[in-house]
């Protein structure tokens, strides 16, 4: 067995051996370069996005990736040019960095003439590499947002109704009673304008709360849903920027918008599910459109009292209760120029939150599921559809009926024993409803809500004697449209199924907030961000979503420094005192997520932007600690004990909270040092040592080499975060493995401890135990959930029917699939995968494994076909890879390597490889 001490010694020896690069690179350079492509600059990013409309800074950062079919290609120099025009004429140039000798291609800051708000600019990148090649990127455009209140000019917030100040409640207590106030109607807005000249540019800035759908001449301007993303509305809201240049017509044009409540207002209606009672205000709209004509003149269109408003055909809209649509209220052409709005009322002027350009990807319909089965009852008036997948989404319907007919749809995760839908544990009642305005066939989908479901029960209620007919129905899966950047596929069917199980939980809970579940709560519980963060990052481009999550934390932090368990915080759960608000394992995402994201993406803004929040949270934890020990919170949530899962059962109170506190301090030493805050670093280091001493005095049992109760979590967490004295590490680790084996390798660790258990076993080469714990389906765990029919990760290890069956937490095995079985890890000290290792595990049991991952430098690909002793590897330009394989003699791209060109150990060989595509055979 490889011990903790042996691992440390092996790492030191590897450093002493050095890196044998020269012989391998000389060999690769001698290989034939058939059909080699020249260097190219790809995927230029401005503030993390390609061609972004609406950035929130006048000093943007720039990144790019490079491509070349040659080997060991590195950037030697770059040149950035920013211009007011796509021609890059001399008089339009705002910044020319000239040639800078540097490898850096990530997060370079603009250093030119001050940019203006609400303006488009153009960028191109020039690069020179170590192969005497140069390349220039395609021209990209970026548009600065409206950064100041005055940038909005005369645009005003407009509404149909205004919520009285006495009813505004941005942070209700969960125990507060349901108010039954006036039922406020949702609004639609419209305004007509005349366009008589040819438009050269049209930029729109649109904020609609809680959510909006914008139309121009009766057509939607985009395909996003739940736009904009939800925020801490008493601090700020998002607006979205559109390029409408091609959407206008000569003559009369009509701009229109529908609004939904979202999380801005949860309507208190009896007979519909309502998780909480948040009320920031009633739906409202703010809009500014700048039209520039070919003759150089401009026209600015704004939301003001001149807009018309009417009762919406959406008669009910709630994130928790569903959505109703009455087509009788307005004709289909209400948003078109031909419609007469004479009888509509004037919009009311109101106030609203500070605005910020939305810089995360929008939520969209990303996949559609047709029914795989159906069951009809009640003479065909009740139809239950099975879509085969539990996913976040809405239904899309095509149906034929008569005026006054009603179609109601109940979505649900589960069925009862008699085949009926059950919303009992996912939020009830929740449904969609449509009322026909006239005879005929219609297509419809709800706009401003969503649910997590696999099944849908359709109830058909004809107004007369003719039947309503369902022509088509789909489950339209919605999620954040950020790119998928990774994949995993292996020869192990169960592991592939588990990966897919976890992936659906991620996708179903990745909207504009990472939620816990897509139905009963839809809240941003924070512990899952740092615990599931690496799993998400191996599969999705989460940089901007994580930056938003940290911003939500900053805006939810209390005056005394507490980072609550939920961000954005819409409700204060007050059952059990502060148990559901003040858990260090949750609030510490404010520090741990920021550090993980910096290491992953290489952007120091993750640290600098959040440093004040971090230090305030550390100070807060210090006020809660008694002799440096923290005991508040939920502990190892949903561990496997004798009782119904919930608050930690098996781990001594205080162990997880204090271990996270110590880990926070450990990271804060590194963060403060990196940011040049030496005094802070010393302070954190001193406090870190005090917590170390107190923790071991309080919880360590040296005679048993154990901590607290000796649970999996109680042993794994101290080992991972570094709380175990060095001389005791091996003994405590052996105690952990013995504990796991004595329990027949059954899982007991919960939401907090499971990731640390996996990480400490993986780092000590006990992947065999990870395999034994998770490669079965006869006891609670991933395989057990699959055997019970789960299609998304469930809230409990046992896949209980009385909890959520689509939940974000507990998916930590996905990280092991990519970093353990697949073997992709950053090398020690590396940032943004500049230097990564591929060290695949379990080669004897897992014959084939194919992984890919788009790092900040480009695509990393590794495909091992162990049965053929064949390996395919792709290393992106400007980075390098240490490939670790079983001991042997290898051929790279058909050429046998000199044994002296490899680093050998007792059981493996290390190859140091620069960029390129490799076929490696034994």
From TrEMBL:
Domain called Alpha-L-rhamnosidase concanavalin-like: residue spans: 381-470
Entry keyword set: Hydrolase
Pfam families: Bac_rhamnosid (PF05592), Bac_rhamnosid6H (PF17389), Bac_rhamnosid_C (PF17390), Bac_rhamnosid_N (PF08531), Ig_Rha78A_N (PF25788)
Annotated ranges, domain Alpha-L-rhamnosidase six-hairpin glycosidase: 484-819
Coiled-coil stretches noted in the UniProt entry, renumbered to this chain: none
Catalytic EC class: hydrolase
UniProt GO molecular function: alpha-L-rhamnosidase activity
Single biological process term from Gene Ontology: carbohydrate metabolic process
InterPro entries: 6-hairpin_glycosidase_sf (IPR008928), 6hp_glycosidase-like_sf (IPR012341), Alpha_rhamnosid (IPR016007), Bac_rhamnosid6H (IPR035396), Bac_rhamnosid_C (IPR035398), Bac_rhamnosid_N (IPR013737), Ig-like_fold (IPR013783), Rhamnosid_concanavalin (IPR008902)
Boundaries of every Alpha-L-rhamnosidase C-terminal domain copy: 823-891
EC numbers for this chain: 3.2.1.40
Bacterial alpha-L-rhamnosidase N-terminal domain: residues covered: 197-367
Reactions accelerated catalytically: Hydrolysis of terminal non-reducing alpha-L-rhamnose residues in alpha-L-rhamnosides
PANTHER family assigned to the protein according to its UniProt record, in alphabetical order: ALPHA-L-RHAMNOSIDASE, ALPHA-RHAMNOSIDASE (EUROFUNG)
UniProt protein name: alpha-L-rhamnosidase
Species: Sphingobacterium athyrii
Lineage summary: Bacteria, Pseudomonadati, Bacteroidota, Sphingobacteriia, Sphingobacteriales
């Amino acid at each position: 067995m490889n011990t903790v001490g042996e691992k440390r010694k092996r790492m030191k020896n590897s450093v002493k051996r050095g890196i044998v690069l020269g012989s391998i690179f000389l060999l690769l350079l001698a290989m034939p370069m058939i059909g080699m492509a020249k260097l190219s600059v790809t995927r230029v990013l401005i503030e993390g996005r390609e061609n972004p409309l609406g950035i929130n800074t006048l000093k943007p950062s720039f990144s790019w990736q490079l491509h070349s079919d040659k080997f060991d290609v590195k950037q030697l120099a770059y040149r950035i040019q920013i211009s007011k025009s796509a021609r890059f004429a001399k008089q339009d140039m705002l910044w020319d960095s000239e040639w800078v000798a540097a490898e850096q291609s990530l997060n370079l800051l603009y250093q030119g003439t001050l940019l203006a708000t609400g303006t488009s600019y153009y960028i191109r990148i020039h690069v020179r590499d170590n192969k005497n090649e140069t390349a220039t990127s395609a021209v990209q455009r970026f548009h600065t947002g409206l950064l100041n209140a005055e940038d909005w000019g005369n645009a005003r917030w407009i509404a149909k109704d205004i919520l009285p100040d006495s009813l505004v409640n941005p942070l209700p207590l969960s125990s507060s009673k349901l108010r039954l106030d006036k039922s406020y109607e949702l609004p639609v807005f419209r305004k007509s304008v005349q366009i008589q000249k040819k438009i050269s540019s049209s930029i729109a800035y649109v904020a609609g709360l809680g959510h909006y759908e914008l139309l121009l001449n009766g057509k939607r301007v985009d395909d996003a849903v739940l736009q904009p993303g939800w925020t801490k509305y008493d601090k700020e809201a998002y607006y979205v920027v559109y390029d409408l240049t091609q959407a206008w017509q000569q003559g009369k044009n009509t701009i229109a918008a529908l609004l939904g409540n979202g999380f801005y207002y949860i309507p208190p209606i009896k007979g519909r599910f309502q998780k909480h009672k948040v009320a920031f205000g009633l739906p409202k709209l703010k809009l500014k459109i700048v039209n520039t004509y070919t003759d150089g003149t401009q026209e600015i269109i704004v939301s003001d009292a001149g807009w018309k408003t009417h009762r919406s055909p959406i008669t009910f809209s709630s994130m928790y209760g569903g959505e109703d649509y009455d087509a009788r209220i307005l004709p289909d052409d209400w948003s078109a120029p031909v419609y007469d709005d004479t009888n509509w009322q004037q919009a009311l002027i109101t106030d609203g939150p500070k605005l910020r350009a939305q810089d995360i990807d929008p939520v969209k319909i990303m996949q559609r599921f047709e029914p795989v089965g159906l069951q009809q009852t009640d003479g065909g008036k009740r139809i239950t559809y099975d879509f085969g997948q539990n996913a976040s989404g809405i239904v899309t319907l095509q149906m034929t009926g008569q005026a006054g007919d009603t179609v109601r749809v109940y979505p649900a995760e589960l069925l009862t024993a008699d085949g009926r839908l059950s919303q009992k544990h996912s939020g009830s009642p929740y449904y969609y409803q449509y009322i026909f305005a006239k005879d005929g066939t219609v297509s419809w989908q709800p706009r401003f809500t969503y649910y997590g479901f696999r099944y849908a029960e359709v109830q058909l209620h004809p107004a007369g004697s003719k039947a309503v007919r369902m022509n088509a129905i789909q489950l339209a899966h919605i999620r954040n449209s950020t790119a998928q950047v990774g994949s995993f596929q292996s020869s192990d069917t169960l592991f592939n199924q588990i990966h897919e199980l976890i992936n659906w939980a991620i996708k179903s809970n990745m909207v504009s907030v990472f939620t816990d579940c897509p139905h009963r709560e839809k809240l941003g519980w924070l512990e899952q961000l740092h615990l599931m963060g690496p799993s998400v990052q191996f599969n999705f481009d989460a940089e901007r979503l994580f930056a938003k999550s940290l911003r939500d934390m900053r805006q939810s932090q209390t005056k005394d420094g507490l980072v609550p368990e939920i961000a954005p915080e819409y409700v204060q759960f007050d059952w059990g005192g502060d148990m559901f608000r003040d858990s260090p394992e949750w609030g510490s995402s404010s520090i741990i997520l920021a550090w993980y994201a910096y290491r992953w993406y290489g952007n120091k803004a993750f640290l600098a932007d959040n440093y004040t929040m971090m230090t305030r949270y550390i100070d807060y934890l210090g006020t809660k600690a008694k002799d440096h020990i923290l005991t508040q919170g939920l502990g190892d949530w949903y561990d496997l004990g004798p009782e119904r899962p919930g608050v930690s059962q098996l781990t001594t109170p205080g162990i997880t909270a204090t271990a996270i506190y110590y880990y926070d301090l450990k990271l804060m030493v590194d963060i403060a040092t990196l940011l040049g805050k030496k005094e802070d670093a010393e302070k954190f280091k001193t406090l870190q040592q005090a917590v170390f001493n107190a923790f071991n005095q309080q919880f360590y049992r040296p005679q048993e080499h154990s901590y607290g109760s000796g649970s999996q979590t109680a042993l794994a967490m101290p080992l991972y975060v570094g709380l175990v004295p060095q001389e005791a590490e091996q003994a405590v680790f052996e105690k952990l493995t013995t504990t796991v084996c004595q329990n027949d390798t059954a899982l007991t660790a919960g939401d907090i401890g499971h990731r640390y258990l996996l990480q400490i076993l993986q780092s000590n080469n006990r992947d065999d135990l990870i395999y034994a714990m998770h490669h079965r389906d006869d006891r609670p765990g991933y395989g057990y959930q699959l055997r019970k029919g789960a299609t998304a990760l469930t809230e409990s290890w046992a896949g209980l029917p009385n909890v959520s069956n689509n939940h974000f937490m507990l998916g930590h095995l996905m990280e092991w699939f990519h970093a353990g079985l697949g073997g992709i890890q950053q090398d020690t000290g590396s940032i943004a995968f500049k230097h990564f290792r591929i060290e695949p595990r379990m080669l004897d049991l897992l014959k084939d494994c194919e992984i890919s991952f788009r790092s900040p430098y480009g695509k990393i690909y590794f495909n091992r076909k162990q049965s053929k002793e064949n390996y395919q590897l792709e290393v992106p330009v400007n980075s390098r890879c240490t490939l670790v394989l079983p001991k042997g003699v290898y051929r790279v791209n058909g050429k046998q390597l000199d044994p002296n060109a490899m680093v050998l150990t007792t059981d493996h060989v290390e190859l140091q490889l620069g960029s390129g595509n490799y076929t490696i055979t034994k």
